[in-house]
Design brief:
Blueprint lengths: L1 E4 L13 E6 L2 E6 L15 H5 L6 H40 L7 H5 L6 H12 L8 H25 L10 H29 L10 H12 L1 H5 L3 H30 L6 H31 L6 H12 L8 H28 L2
Antiparallel strand pairs: 1-2, 2-3
Length: 354
C-alpha cells in the first residue's frame, strides 16, 4: 500500500514540518518536502503516490501487503481472546440475566441478575472453577483470529480502494473504509458470537456444552443461515458503527501520543495507550447494540433486535442497555491494547522478512 501519512497502521514513522513518511508495500522511507530522500535511498516525489496505487502497482506487492495484514491480524485476534475472554463471559452473563435468558435453574439459585460484576466473577470461580470463565473460548479463539485477520486485512483493502490516508483519520474516505470493514467483519462475528454466547450463559460445573455441539443442534433445527446468523442485524450495526470509532480513535490517539513524545515511530507504550483508548471508545459506544445482540442470541426462540430493544426500554429504561458496562470497560482496555500491540509488532516482524 502506498500512503502519505504521519503514522501507519503498521507502525510507520511520523511526519514533521518538512519530513513526510512514505510507505510502499510495507517499506518506509523518509522523504523531504522537496522530494529528496533523507536516508540515501532512491528519491520519490509526492506525486508518486497515486501512480503507485493505480493500475500499475505491482500485483505481488499488493498481495503481500494484504497477506501481512491478514497474518498480523490473526495473531492479534488470538492475543485479544486470551486476555479478554474471562471478562467477556461476565459481561455476557450479566446482559443475559437482565432479560432472564440465562439457561438452567442455577440462575435462580445464584441470583445472577442481582449481582454486580465483582460478585459474579467471584461466584463463577467459586461454584464453577476458573476455567468456566473461558467457556465458549474455542469458538472465540477461532472467531477472533479469523475476524481480526478480516478486520485488518479488509481495512487495508478498503483504505486502498477509497484512497484513504491514515494521516487523516477524520476524513470521509478513512471513515467509509472503516465502516465497510465492520460490515465484512460482521459476517464472521455473528455465528462465532452466537455459539460463544450460548455456551457462556450455561451455568454449573457439570455443564457439558461446547460451541460445536451448539452449532450442530442449531443447524439441525434451523439450517445454516437461520441457525447460525441469529442476531445478525444488531451485530452488523455494532460492527459498522464500532469500527468507524475504533480505527479513527486509534489513529488519532496514536498520532497525538507520538507528537507529544517527539517520536518518529510508535513504540510499545504508544500502541498500548492508543489501542486501549480505541477499545474503550468502541465498547462504550456500541454496548447498547451489544446488549441487544447478546439477548437475541441467548434466546431459545427467535426474536428480533427491535423487539428486544423495545422490551428492555419499557421494563428497565436506558440503564438496561448498559448492563455489563463494568466488565466490558475493564476488558476493553487490556484486550484491545494487546490486539493492537500484537498487530503492530507482527507486522514489523513480517516486514523484516522482505
Amino acid at each position: 500500500m502506498t500512503s502519505l501519512s504521519s503514522t501507519m497502521a503498521a507502525g510507520g514513522p511520523s511526519s514533521y514540518p518538512r519530513i513526510l513518511a512514505i510507505s510502499i508495500g510495507g517499506r518506509s522511507s523518509n522523504i523531504s518536502s522537496n522530494g529528496s530522500s533523507t536516508d540515501g535511498s532512491t528519491s520519490l516525489s509526492i506525486s508518486s503516490k497515486r501512480k503507485l496505487t493505480g493500475k500499475g502497482h505491482d500485483t505481488a506487492g499488493a498481495l503481500w501487503f494484504m497477506a501481512k495484514n491478514f497474518i498480523a491480524g490473526t495473531a492479534a485476534g488470538v492475543a485479544e481472546c486470551f486476555v479478554g475472554h474471562p471478562l467477556d463471559t461476565i459481561k455476557v452473563r450479566m446482559q443475559a440475566a437482565t432479560a432472564g435468558q440465562a439457561s438452567g435453574a442455577a440462575i435462580a439459585v445464584a441470583g445472577v441478575a442481582k449481582m454486580n460484576a465483582a460478585q459474579l466473577l467471584k461466584s463463577t470461580i467459586k461454584h464453577e472453577g476458573f476455567l468456566a470463565l473461558y467457556r465458549g473460548a474455542s469458538s472465540r479463539v477461532v472467531g477472533s483470529a479469523l475476524a481480526n485477520s478480516v478486520l485488518f486485512g479488509a481495512n487495508g483493502a478498503f483504505k486502498k480502494l477509497f484512497d484513504a490516508d491514515t494521516a487523516l483519520p477524520l476524513s470521509g474516505a478513512f471513515i467509509l473504509a472503516s465502516a465497510c470493514t465492520g460490515a465484512a467483519e460482521a459476517a464472521i462475528w455473528t455465528p462465532m458470537d452466537l455459539l460463544k454466547t450460548r455456551c457462556q450463559v450455561e451455568y454449573g460445573k457439570t455443564v457439558n456444552v461446547t460451541p460445536w455441539k451448539v452449532a450442530k443442534q442449531l443447524i439441525k433445527e434451523h439450517g445454516i443461515i437461520r441457525g447460525l446468523y441469529a442476531g445478525g442485524g444488531p451485530t452488523l450495526m455494532r460492527e459498522v458503527v464500532g469500527n468507524m470509532i475504533y480505527f479513527t480513535v486509534y489513529q488519532t490517539t496514536k498520532q497525538a501520543i507520538m507528537r507529544a513524545r517527539g517520536l518518529h515511530e510508535g513504540d510499545t507504550l504508544t500502541f498500548i495507550l492508543a489501542g486501549g483508548c480505541a477499545g474503550t471508545s468502541y465498547w462504550f459506544s456500541i454496548l447498547p447494540l451489544d446488549t441487544v445482540k447478546s439477548i437475541v442470541q441467548a434466546q431459545e426462540t427467535r426474536v428480533t433486535g427491535m423487539h428486544v430493544a423495545r422490551d428492555l426500554y419499557i421494563k428497565n429504561g436506558v440503564a438496561a442497555f448498559y448492563r455489563g458496562v463494568g466488565p466490558a470497560m475493564l476488558r476493553a482496555f487490556p484486550a484491545c491494547a494487546a490486539t493492537w500491540t500484537t498487530f503492530e509488532y507482527s507486522l514489523l516482524a513480517l516486514q523484516r522478512l522482505e
